[in-house]
Amino acid sequence: MTSTDPTENFYALMPLTRTFGITIVAYAADGVRARLAWDASLCTAGGVLHGGALMALADSTGGACAFLNLPAGSAGTTTIESKTNFIRAVRDGYVESHSRPLHTGKTVIVVETDLRDDRDRLVARVTQSQLVLAG
Q1: Nearest to 58 by CA among 42, 78, 35
Q2: pLDDT digits (tens, 9 = 90+) for 9-41
Q3: Which residue from 37, 40, 43, 135 could staple onto 94, CB 3.0 to 4.6 Å apart?
């Protein structure tokens, strides 16, 4: 990362996050937080934020959290499994993700991500496994 702006660094590492307009709130090994604003271009019928957009947010912050917890000498990480439980629809405001490590092993890192709306209501919970790539 070369910029002092964590969101710009996030965009450089994962260009798709710029396309969605995801912004970083916190970026540390013990937790990555980011926001996705509701936008009509990211919705399904009825103005509901698309589940794929929510999953992209969770996968991005989960991947970043796994990256920040890589063992020394590792080259990176990639998602090998992801499970999402959707709890409620989002029709306005924003969604904030909070990814935190559950297990940081030598070959697999497991991350749990909660997505909450701007009223702090649970929108979804995502658990993902990240494969540690050898250096």
Answers
A1: 35
A2: 899 989 999 999 999 999 999 999 999 999 999
A3: 37
Residue located via tokens 């019928």 = 45
Q: How far is CA 71 from the centre of its chain?
A: 20
Domain, as residue range, for 90 = 6-133
Is residue 97 a part of any domain in this protein?
Answer: yes
Q: What is the CATH number of the domain that holds 113?
A: 3.10.129.10
Look at residue 24 and tell me if it is in a domain.
yes
> What is the secondary structure of 17-69 as a DSSP string?
HHHHT-EEEEEETTEEEEEEE--GGGB-GGGPBPHHHHHHHHHHHHHHHHHHT
Burial class (CB in 10 A: 0-12, 13-18, 19+), 41: exposed
Backbone angles phi, psi at 57, to 5 degrees: -60, -50
- pTM of whole model > 0.90? yes
CA neighbours within 13 Å on the CB side: how many for 104? 16
